[in-house]
Write a structure and sequence with these properties.
alpha/beta; Rossmann fold; 4 domains; 7-stranded parallel sheet; 16% strand; elongated
Amino acid sequence: MTGVMNASRQANSDARPDTVGERMNAADTPFAALVRREALATLIAPEASPGEPALIELGRAVVSAVIGSLALGGAERILLDWAASCAKRYRVRIVVLRDVQPEWPVPRGLEVTRLGSKDLIPQLEGVGAAIAAAGNRVVLCHMLTAAERQALTRGGAYPVPVLHNASAGWIEPADALSDSHCVIAVSRTAAKELQAAGCRTPSVVIHHIPGTPTPRPDARREWRVCWAVPQEALVIGMIGAVKPQKAYPRALRVLAALVERRDAYLVILGGPIGRDGMLAWRAALTQAMRLGIEERVRLPGFVPNAADCLPAFDLLLNTSRYEGLSIATLEALVAGLPVVASDVGGQGEISAPGLALLPFAASDIAWACAVDTALRRRPALPAWRGFPSHRLWTLFHLLPPLERGADVLFVTANLNAGGAQRSLVNLALALKESLRFEIAVCGNSSSAHFSHKLEQAELRVYRSAASRDCFDHAEAILRRIVAGRFGTVCFWNVDAKVKLVLAKVLGVTEVRLVDVSPGGYSFEEMRATRAFQEWIAFSEDEYYARLDRLVLKYCGAAPPAATGKVSVIPNGVAGQGCAPMRAAAAVPRIVVSGRIAPSKFLIEAVAAMRVLWREYPHAELHLLGRAEQRYAAYAQDLLNAIGPDLGTRVFLHGAVSDAPERLAGFSVALVLGERQGCPNAVLEALAAGLPVIANDSGGTRELVIDGRTGLLLPGCDPCEIAAALARVIGDPAWARCLSEAGRRHVVRRFSMKRMVTAYRNLFRCA
């Protein structure tokens, strides 16, 4: 047996280089542990290659906003939260039209210009000119009128109105918002009301999520002392200016119902504001006296940062008639307080364990019972606590009106040695003479081979960010789209969160969006981000509805929201000419080419070899590929499964850049996987003239026609795999028929030329 194997290795020395397995076979027993470590290192790819693409160059952007005032309201809080969060990364310029007292304190690091309430229109024209001169002409406008935004436009800026309230609180009619390329609303309800009112300007929703509070240790005691409230009493808090929409008389009736069985107090942080503020204030005082609970009510007035008072509350109550998206409600939930609120506006659009919603018209008894129920347990913190919603605001600060261009930007996850990346690189090299495009890579690549091929072809390739943060990648790509005036963005095996964020932002533009999806796996990844979709107020149905084309790699099912937008473009492979005729090898050599990952069923392949070795003890299994760092544990399990056969009957080749060229040196290709698209490993093996054994997954059945171009197995059972391998190995003439038919099938239906033509046509009409 040893002589046969040595002869086989000598005969095939030109077909493959030295492998880790061979070195282990030659190693002495004392070095076995060292060689196993070397084998594991061969299996596991590094986190990043030093030869991967360079980062895209991004300068420090200027971002601008204009607001009516810095009064102690939710709109003003949203603006200042955003500005404080991004002051270190950007040059932040805030323009305040009117001075009021009291107002929010301005965070450090911001450039604030105050117009002082007089001659606003000519001053705003100058502000617009200054914004345009700074390079980024976009300016978000909070609580401005159409006339004020138009003055900014005359100065050269691109104003974007922000709608902070439900229709009952709008400061102008819906048609006044048609002076911009988009409108931002703080809740889905507000956006729907805007559309229902006839506004045709594209709208987008951003749910602002406040930061996580850091209360002082003694805040609860100090505030209760300040308000003259007993330390052990139940304190219900309310936050907001006193005006009719807040319905404070309802809250007082709820308190009256509670004090019959609890030592309860109501603290309202806010004072009268607006035209009817004093009327609402007097109504609240009168109601408290009529109910005989005036000793249980505290009215401290406005507090500059009301969130500091939350530790002194046991529950937050919000009885508003209408809301856009209550910042006070969100702050209380982030702080871990239970909240009982009216189900109006955007109150229920961000779910949280501590939030109880009631119809505004519910009875006072129902409200009091809801408060009692909410106080019985301390709610869990919401999952969205700490979510960086300010990043979404920033993206719209960086999005000017875009004219549709002709160039294409491919966006891919990495340039590792995988099938998806190989198909992209092959396509890019074939398209470079007929299409202008760039490639943005949203992650580290463990191999530099594909990067070098693209660089040698003088194609522009860059990484979007060094981090794994989806917002970092989305922002860099957005800024490149704006600078390069790309007309089409093509997602190619990209993280679902990056796709969602970019599609949401580009949804208000005419930029064409194409998603090249491998099929079921991509759809499952998208479904797994449902919590993220809720937080960014952009669902997977909205994503697929926004796409211009969804490209599948095989004829499979697509999400219903993409109906009418699906194209099927299989991968292509170079395979013209005749396959070399080979005599049956003395030692059957089975090859598996691809990633080392649980989805590739490599441990099952090793188990199948153990069955096969009963009949063909000299058969060899060769693994071409490496595992990403996240699959290091699986690589170790694989090595354990191989055991003593490493180097005698199982050989690890590690990452190989020329896998398609090596395949002709093997006898049979084994391709296992789940949720396959159009697997390149199958295409390349068929093109190389190898008989292919594969499991029936995704588009594999379109390549491997059972009994004609290969063997298609129902699953990955080791015994079934071994039986299929034995059939092919034991009948060389039939194996040759399979390989010839498989190669003809690939040349006819899956050529690179067909793939390139299909994508060229797609980008012309997407």
